[in-house]
Each structure stands twice: as C-alpha cells, then as structure tokens.
Amino acid sequence: MKSPMKSPMKSSATTPMKLLLALDDGPGARRAVDEAIRIAREKGATLDALFVIDATWDVFTGHDWLSGCNSRIGFLEYMQGLEEKAAAESARAFLERRGDVPGELLTAPGDVVDVIREHAARGYDLLVLSSPFTRGLEVMRDAVTRLTRDAPCDVLLVRAAPE
Amino acid sequence: MEDKGLFGKILAIVPGLAVMIGTLYVLRVYVEPWMKDAVVFGSKGWLVQVLSLNYILLSILTGMFYRNILFGGKIPAWAEEGFRTTRLFIKTGVIMLGSLYTFDKLLKVGGVAITLIVAFVFGTAIFVLWLGKRLGADRSVTATMAAACGVCGVSAAVATAPGVRAKPVDLALSIATILGFGIMTMFVSPFVGKMLSLSDYQFGAWVGTGILNSGQVLATCLAFNPNFAPGTAVAYGEIWNVVRVLCIPFVVFFITAWYWKGEADAEHVSLGSILASKFPIFVLGFIGMTALSSLHIIGAEGSETLHLMRDVMAWVFGIGLVGLGAYIDVREIKAAGGTPLRIGLIAGVSKYVIAMIIILAFIPKEGAF
Q: Which terminus has fewer CB within 10 Å in chain B: N or C?
C-alpha cells in the first residue's frame, strides 16, 4: 500500500499534493476515510471528499415498461431521498474524522464512476477509494475495474478491514 | 440539466430511435427470412423451429448486444433519449393489442384467467411472505420479493419499494434476480411449449401465469408464435397480463399493510391512495381499444384496416423490444445474490412449474376464440 504512494508525491516546495477521496457506504468506507486522512496529514496534502448521489436508478429500471408515471416518479423520488440521506450520513462521518486536514466536501449527482473520473481529472494527484466500492448501484457493477482502467490520476485502493 | 426546448428534445430522440428502427428493419427484412431458409445441422429452418428464434427474440438479443458489447455496458448519451421511448412503444403496442378482442371473447376466457391469476398472484405473495420468514430475511426484502414474484416482477417491486422502506442494495438485488429469472424463462419457455405440444391457448395461459415479468410474458408469447391475431399465444397471454396488471394496486396494498402491521411505527395505508398512484392507466387504453373492436369500428376480422393495424403492431413491439434489450445489463444480473436470489429462485421455479401442471391438467387445447 505504501509503494504506489511514491510516484504522485510532490515536494513541499511546490504546490501541495491534492487527494480526492471517493466516499461510499460499503464495508471498507471507514478504512478508506482513515487512510486518506492519514496520507493527507503525512504529506501536508489537501483532501477533498466526493460523495456521488447515484442518479442511474431510472436507467437501472429502464426495462420496466409497465409502471405508470405516478408509480415510477414515486419510486425515483424515494430512491433520491435515500441517496440524499446516505450523502448526509457519509458527510457527517467524514467531517467527524477529518479534523484539521484542509479540503472540501463535494456532493454531485450522476453515474458514480463517470462523476468520480470527471472530478479526478481536475488536477488531483491521488484518488483514494475502498475496494470493493459499493456506492449506490455500483454494488451491482464493478466500479474499481472501471475506474482503474482509465483513471486520470494514481489510484489507491483500500481493502475493507478483515472481519 | 440544460433545457433543450421541445424541438431540441425531439431532436435528441432521433439517433437512438433510428438505431432501434434500423435494427428492427434489418432483422425483419433480412435476418428473419435468412433464418427460415438457413440449413443448420442438416435441417432447413432449424434456427426458427428448434431455437424459436424470430424477430421478437432477435430484437431483444440485439438490444442486449448493443448494451453489453457494443456500448460497453452503458447506453451512450447520444442514444439515451431515443432508447427512453421504449416504454412508449411497448405501451402503445399493448393498447393496440386490445383490438384482438371483443368483450364477449374476453368474457369467455376472462373467468379462467381471473381465477388462475388471483390464485397464483396472492398464493405466491403469501408463500414468499412465509418463505422470507423461514429464511430469516429482512421484512422489507420479503415484502419486495413477495410483490415481485407474486404479480408483475420489476414493476411490482418498483410500486412496492417506497411503501415498505426497501433498502437500495436489497432492491437492486431483487430487481436483478427477477430480471435474470424472467430472461431465462423467456428463452426456455417457447422451447418447452413446443416440446410439450402446447396449443396457443395453453401456452398463453401458462406463461401468463408462470412468468414473473409482464414484458417477458409478451415477448415469450411472441417468440412461441409471432403472429398477432385472435387465438394466438399473445392474444391469450395478454388477457392474463392485463388481469395481472390490474392486480398490482391490490397486491401493493396487501403487502404494504402486512409490512406495517409488523413495524412499531405503523403508518396508515389506504387502498384508495394506492389505487390512485399505482393504477396502470394504459390498461384503460387497452379496454378502450377492445370497446372499439366490439363495436366493429376498427373493421371486421380479415379487413384491410385490421391487417394494417397488426402489421404496425408488430413493428411497434419489435422497436420497443430492441430498446427493452438495451436496458438489460448482464453484469447487473450476474451480481444477483443473497436472500433475494434464494427467495426468487424458490418462488419463481415453484410458480413456473405448478402453473405448467395446472395448465396441463385443466386447460384444454382448444381456445375460446
């Protein structure tokens, strides 16, 4: 876990290192947060945390042709509500642990992997996420493979703590 | 999201819709005729006769190919709006299907359909509620799976989820299970139906009772017999489908009431509000079309108008099914697991097999029309 960290390091004389932590609600979420905070402290880096509100439930249930508009809208609103609740809980947990590490808390809706990739391309040196990464409907997909395939920056995967 | 205006919205539909229409054109005009003549394993037309491949199944398979192989797992942004018209096409097709019936024909098979559907819908729901308890499943998972296995698959899960506070992960797993099971039965059923020499009436009644997802009932009936006419598998299967669809609000009410009965912070559940929010309004279009047919307003059997209408219906369904296939992500189905998968498999297989036994025992080969 330490060796991949060497390449993105920047000397303290240049711009501080920028970390992006992708938040999720899986078993490895807490460990990923702790690891990102530890690295940020160690390197004097800024740490931005990103929670993506999964907006792909409409597509996920796209094969359901039968539901009426009311039923479908009610369902999508319900899922949106749950996503927002998860975002608030995740944000609270992150802010409680972050302490004095500088950085922002970002929330954005969309396809989880697309949004993370898009943010990671905004000048970050390292993307930290848990593996498996189970934010929203990524529990049914393979976010880690998709993200590492063409990541715009270095990626640190943090395993869930062994039970 | 930027506001494109009406013209922009219509324009955004064009690329995806063109893909769906173009695909169906190629399948119907070139691929299907080729398959009928193709010699495989020394037998002419083997692909059609043995594998039951016709433009309906090919439409779904091609849509799945687009999504999972060509598009790399995600419908691209340029095609998204066009593929979104899928629901519109299939609902239009179902409304047009109403023209295959008259009210006196519906009455002839309606009693059998209602008896079988009500027994299977509520029987399955009660069985799943019991099974969920036996397997120690979370109450919201049990409730979602009871609706999904009992009545109309994914649509029922979508309708029930908010009322039973379904969790996203459980819901995703339930939907993947139901969809996966439905797809499997969609490809297996025509083969089984032909092997058992089922008539169109028996086949329509069987899949209308036994298959979990309503969309797949239609596709399976059309895979068995791709013709749109009174007395075909789709004509019978759709009667079963409509009865099922009408059951959705009642099943949602029953299961939501069961769920809240076991919760400490019980909420009041009203059948009226569920009927208002969950009633599938397109069924009224179907009934309206049957009324027009009963009044002989859309032409007598064999008329040019009806012939044209059925041809349009075939195109409308085919286009919709290409889109339906494109919404099937194999990775998501492969991720199905846990308690929803166990419940889905036990309930789904039991319903499918028991429905077959009942049909063979009690439904005659000769249909009512």
A: N
